[in-house]
Amino acid sequence: MRIATWNVNSIRQRLDHLTAWLAERQPDIVCLQEIKCQDDAFPRQAFEALGYNLAVHGQKTFNGVAILSKLKFDEVTPGLPGDDGDDHARFIEAAFSTSSGVLRVASLYLPNGNPAGTEKYSYKIKWMNRLSHYASERLKLEEPLILAGDYNVIPTPADVHNPAAWVNDALFLPQTREKFRALESLGLTDAIRAVSDDDKLYTFWDYQAGAFQKDHGIRIDHVLACPRMTDRLQAVEIFRKARALEKPSDHVPVIATFED
DNA sequence: ATGGCCAATATGATTGGA
Q1: Can you tell me the distance from the alpha carbon of A69 to that of A129, in angstroms, rounded to the nearest whole number?
Q2: Which nucleotide is nearest to A61 (CA to C1')?
């Protein structure tokens, strides 16, 4: 079972890159973020032609998440619980029947939160608290659970090229990192850190200032796994090459492979 | 040379991203 995440920064701009990558890598489940279109504008046929089922939670202009799956969806639930007034499309959960029982996978796009000290940052922190509450409820079920997406969190100094330049950034503030550790404390494992202690495992490079060429990246796209899925984790790959394509997303895909 | 980009929108300036 291979589960991927990719912030594509517009599904319509990235359609060719995404379909070529899917055809080559054939992940079973793909969590997408920043699709930046409404549900009816999502290019469904391109993915159905590759054998994927779709669950889309879109929004005009900004945000938007989706899940592609070779497995049939048993249930699809858009929206993160905990705030009925939150109209950002940043979360979608799907449930699947597998040989090892019900598997739940969520695609999430956690708020950026910049600039710090504004309502944008308080929204981020509230969103992280809601995510923790959701995760704790799901973990109580003791069923396979994967939370994958763009967390907009740099977990440690090893996950950024120049930590000093990020100390006041919403992605790296102590409170942000503390909330991320709170998720881990619930029993979720940052999959790549279960298989590697390397630095420079970046998943995002800014479009500006030649950041990719200088490898000025950050690691903010994460696959979090429950204990049972962590036991089955075999490998995690970051597809750095995707950032070198023509008209790339500023994020690259990550695939976690789990024993069937 | 210490700044350099990108996507969506009734669109050519603004907003958001990170």
Answers
A1: 28
A2: B8
